[in-house]
Structure formats: structure tokens, C-alpha cells
Amino acid sequence: MNKTTARLFEDALGSMYDALWDYAEAHKRTYGSPIGDDGVLGDDWIAAVRALAGLLNGETGQIDCGAFDRKLRDLAEVNGFTRDFEDLPPKPQKSIAPEIDKSVDNAIDNMKLGLKPDWE
Fold first, then answer.
1. I want to staple 115 with a disulfide (CB 3.0 to 4.6 A). Which of 27, 51, 76, 110 is the partner?
2. For the whole model, what pTM was predicted?
């Protein structure tokens, strides 16, 4: 492969990375949260990151694929995903209705003991 052809692949991969970065930044500025917190767009964005990582198995010109892969994993991590391009586990949320939680917990405990729930 000649230097000109190699440069085409390098530029394309770099442009795709920049576009993913720019989109994530635009989302954060617009909505005030990382794109990984978006239950719809986040799925598609991380799929694009995974796809770009997959393209590193093809022609890449002179790109250091290990370093590029690391940059993709860093990009995923700062935008709310794991370094394995997976969703982060949801953060535990404080209940807004502890009395309901207690009632449900009691009903579950009663069912385990073979007792009928209070609401029947």
C-alpha cells in the first residue's frame, strides 16, 4: 500500500473518532449529562464506538491500533460506559416512597412464609 492510500484510511478513522467525540460533547452540553445516561441515543452511540473499534481489524494505514483502541475505551468511559463498551450498572436510587418499599418487602416475606399478602 502506498503512503497516499494509507493516509486515506488514517484520515477516515480519525474523522470517525472526532465525530463520536463531538457528538458526545454536544449531547453533554445540550442535556447536561453524558450520552451514556441517554437510554436511546446512548445505545446507538456506543454501537458506533464498537463499530469503529471493529474497523481496526481492517486497513488502518500507519495508525497504532493498540493506542487507538485505548482512546476509544477512554472515550467510552468518560461518556458513561465501561472500558468494554458496556453500559455502566445503574446507580442505586434512594426510594421516594420508603413506606411502599417496606410494605412490598413485608408482603414478599409473608409469601415466603406461605402467608397471604396484606392487600388480599
1. 110
2. 0.70
Helix 65-78 × helix 41-55 angle, to 10°? 170
Tell me if 25 is assigned to some domain.
Answer: yes
Does residue 67 share a domain with residue 30? yes
Inside any domain, residue 84: no
Q: What is the pLDDT of residues 31-65, one digit of tens each?
A: 999 999 999 999 999 999 999 999 999 999 999 99
Distance CA 19, CA 27 (A): 12
56-to-61, 67, 68, 85, 98 alpha-carbon distances in Å:
10, 11, 8, 15, 49
Measured distance CA(120)–CA(116) in Å, rounded = 7
